[in-house]
Amino acid sequence: MELANGTYAWLVTGYRQAREVLADPRFSNVPPQRAGRPKPDSPAERARACLARHMLNSDAPDHTRLRRLATAAFAPRRVDALRPRIERLAAGLTADLAARLEREGTADLVDAFAFPLPVLVIGEVLGVPEADRADLREWTYRVGSPADALAPGAVDEAWSALHSYFTALIAEKRRAPGDDLFSALVHDTDEGGLDDAELLAMAFLLLFAGYETTMNLLASASLLLLTHPGERAAALHGGPGRWAAVVEETLRHASPLEGTTWRRTTEPVDLGGGAALPAGASVLVALAAANRDPEHFPEPDAFRPDRHLPGGERPAPHAAFGHGPHFCPGARLARLEATIALPLLFDTFPGLSLAADPAELPYRPGLLVRGPREVPVKA
Ligand code: HEM
């Protein structure tokens, strides 16, 4: 495919090929050196450059070391222990949403629920004190906004503010660790523990890998349930297994990350079927396409949670969390959040309906993330 900058890249769309590429060490995650690029000289540029140094942009053995630490911090028991806190955060947002609906008649589910919940949960993961969570939410909102949507300089200011805040947070966690997952990373002193620059990159990565994806999962699942009343009724009366199936089917049908991060071939690779890639080829794995590959998912365009239930066709695992060495370490946390938030939302507002034509809803621009920009609802 041709990219906007006039260069070419390979798009991998089949399920089998997607998994092959993601598990093959001949596809590197390290971005090519951009020769002649000026050194970052403003706080905002330094923050962006720091985000670029994270583990998704690395290969073994660097990646293996960073990944081992992240996997330990995201151990199932640590993630599961977040349940009561996530329930409390989701309940607080639901109460705010109820008040807003009462006051204004309509509300945007993305703004009121799907965006703030993952950001607040990352606040828990990073051990951000409650008093600072509103700032974290605001800075995250700003850095995720197009530069022309805010006052001049606002996006850069938010990047700098996040950079300073995370730098101070790391110093504080070194001094006085909390029971959060990030403190576990800061204090992992096993061979190859993280230095301050790596911790900073990790904090940025956790924020950006964790909030936008989960926001899209919550927004897309809500939209799918609002437009599939039969599935919504089945979920409301079907118990936890049915909600888990709704989440899996949303991940497959509306993959929050449409594509992985870029890969580059380190040598020529023949993927079969006429796809002979030269060394140095840029490659994007289209997770959304792989998840609708008809050879693996019958009726791929239909939203059918029952396919994941006992008695359903029990398809191959979807690829929404990737595959291979970079498989998402936050998958368990994202599933936990969604299976708490969605039943709470739809139980609390049994009459919730869309306040806009679903065909007219704007989607986020860009090649990698996918989700509705707004989901206006009325109670
Ligand atoms: C990596 C999807 C939530 C942290 C990935 C990858 C995918 C993905 C596809 C691999 C990308 C690639 O190979 O280029 C998702 C989806 C989510 C989600 C769909 C929500 C629905 C989260 C959460 C966190 C997280 C909640 C943590 C708070 C990460 C990290 C990586 C990653 C750190 C890099 C792993 C590595 O390089 O080894 N995610 N993610 N993700 N994700 Fe997630």
From TrEMBL:
<keyword id="KW-0349">Heme</keyword>
<dbReference type="InterPro" id="IPR036396">
    <property type="entry name" value="Cyt_P450_sf"/>
</dbReference>
<dbReference type="InterPro" id="IPR017972">
    <property type="entry name" value="Cyt_P450_CS"/>
</dbReference>
<keyword id="KW-0560">Oxidoreductase</keyword>
<dbReference type="InterPro" id="IPR002397">
    <property type="entry name" value="Cyt_P450_B"/>
</dbReference>
<feature type="region of interest" description="Disordered">
    <location>
        <begin position="26"/>
        <end position="45"/>
    </location>
</feature>
<feature type="region of interest" description="Disordered">
    <location>
        <begin position="295"/>
        <end position="323"/>
    </location>
</feature>
<keyword id="KW-0479">Metal-binding</keyword>
<dbReference type="InterPro" id="IPR001128">
    <property type="entry name" value="Cyt_P450"/>
</dbReference>
<dbReference type="Pfam" id="PF00067">
    <property type="entry name" value="p450"/>
</dbReference>
<keyword id="KW-0408">Iron</keyword>
<protein>
    <submittedName>
        <fullName>Cytochrome P450</fullName>
    </submittedName>
</protein>
<keyword id="KW-0503">Monooxygenase</keyword>
<comment type="similarity">
    <text>Belongs to the cytochrome P450 family.</text>
</comment>
<feature type="compositionally biased region" description="Basic and acidic residues">
    <location>
        <begin position="295"/>
        <end position="311"/>
    </location>
</feature>
